[in-house]
Amino acid sequence: MARKTDIFARIKTDHDTIRALLDKAEQANGNGRAVFEDLQRELWAHAKVEEGIFYASLSKAKDAKSETIEGLNEHHLINGLLDELNAMKTTDSGWKEKLQVLGELVRHHLDEEEEELFEEAKEYLDDGRAAELGGFYADRKDHVLAGLAPLPK
After folding, report:
1. 138 Cβ contact partners less than 8 Å away, ≥ 6 residues apart
2. 12, 114 in Cβ contact below 8 A?
3. pLDDT tens digit string along 91-129?
4. Taking the alpha carbons of 139, 143, 144, 148 in that order, is the dihedral positive or negative?
């Protein structure tokens, strides 16, 4: 029987995908609307599923409470920057700089989760629960991404 991928590995895989999309968007130099839209869908799906599965599972973990509240606030700030970037053309003055700010905030958020929140969560979630949450996370993320996918033209 295949070993289930736990919640920590699933989130880390998402984080790596997000980092790669950020790099691509930053290197696109004004021609990155399609890459930005892929990044945005990934960020939206990741944040909603992470909040509903991972953060919610830590709601009673006293040691992780501050980190999860900080994470929710960072998700809110990230969504605000995404909204602002959506209202702009990639060729607009300030697009590149705003995308850079988004990248800095997102990378900080991802690093902090991996270095701090994961450690606190591992003390609260046993291996069985972490594996179970990984399955829930994967299923829900697939559904959310499917719902956000653009319609064929």
Report:
1. 5, 10
2. yes
3. 888 999 999 999 999 999 999 999 999 999 999 999 999
4. positive
Centroid of chain to Cα 43:
5
Backbone φ and ψ for 42, nearest 5 degrees, come out as -65, -45
| Spatial CB neighbours of 46, under 8 Å, sequence gap ≥ 6 | 11, 14, 18, 141
Residues 6+ apart with CB under 8 A from 102: 22, 78, 81, 82, 85
pTM for the model stands at 0.92
Residue 153 tokens read as: 């033209």
Token pair recorded at residue 39: 């990044």
CB 117 within 8 A of CB 68: yes
pLDDT for 2:
37
* CA angle, residues 1, 142, 89, in degrees to nearest 5: 145
For 23-45, give one letter per residue: b (16+ CB within 10 A) or e. Answer: eebbebeeebbebbebbbbbbbb
